[in-house]
């Protein structure tokens, strides 16, 4: 939405409408193209696509991110300092330091999505929702088309969230 000072949960542009007939304007979530590494490393590192514009309320739905990530500690409902030595490795090979880990919830049509083990990376310029983590911890599937994305419950097929890409 471009407005600072609130999290996605309290974003005035993020309207939840009951039922799938009128999707909310989900301007803070955008499809990000996946990054495909040219060479594999034997060591595991958190990974993220480079996010190039600063806005703490914008969330990208990212197929290339290994973890949910935010640069703004206030986006996390619960958090603890991170004591590990890992960095988040970007597509260009550079690393960004992790300061905290935590959790948050994001509203949907039926019930909130819970995002656990969210990494706080102060140098990151966009907040990232890892598609893999979202699906594996919330029992959902994410479908992308050229004009929208949908998040559906795996057990019931119920539409839980829908959005349109903004600026590709």
UniProtKB/TrEMBL annotation:
Region annotated Disordered, chain positions: 21-43
Organism, scientific name: Noccaea caerulescens
Domain called Retrovirus-related Pol polyprotein from transposon TNT 1-94-like beta-barrel: residue spans: 59-136
InterPro entries per record: PolX-like_BBD
Official protein name in the record: Retrovirus-related Pol polyprotein from transposon TNT 1-94-like beta-barrel domain-containing protein
Pfam families named among the record's database cross-references: Pol_BBD (PF22936)
Comp. bias intervals (Polar residues): 28-43
């Amino acid at each position: 939405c471009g407005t600072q000072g609130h999290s996605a949960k309290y974003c005035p542009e993020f309207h939840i409408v009951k039922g799938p007939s009128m999707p909310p304007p989900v301007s803070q979530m955008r499809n990000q193209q996946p990054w495909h590494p040219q060479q594999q490393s034997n060591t595991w590192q958190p990974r993220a696509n480079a996010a190039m514009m600063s806005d703490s309320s914008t969330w990208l739905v990212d197929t290339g991110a290994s973890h949910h990530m935010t640069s703004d500690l206030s986006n996390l409902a619960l958090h603890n300092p991170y004591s590990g030595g890992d960095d988040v490795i970007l597509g260009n090979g550079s690393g960004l330091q992790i300061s905290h880990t935590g959790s948050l919830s994001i509203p949907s049509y039926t019930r909130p999505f819970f995002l656990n083990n969210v990494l706080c990376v102060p140098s990151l310029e966009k907040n990232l929702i890892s598609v893999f983590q979202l699906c594996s911890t919330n029992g959902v599937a994410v479908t992308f088309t050229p004009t929208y994305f949908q998040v559906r419950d795996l057990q019931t097929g119920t539409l839980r969230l829908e959005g349109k890409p903004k600026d590709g």
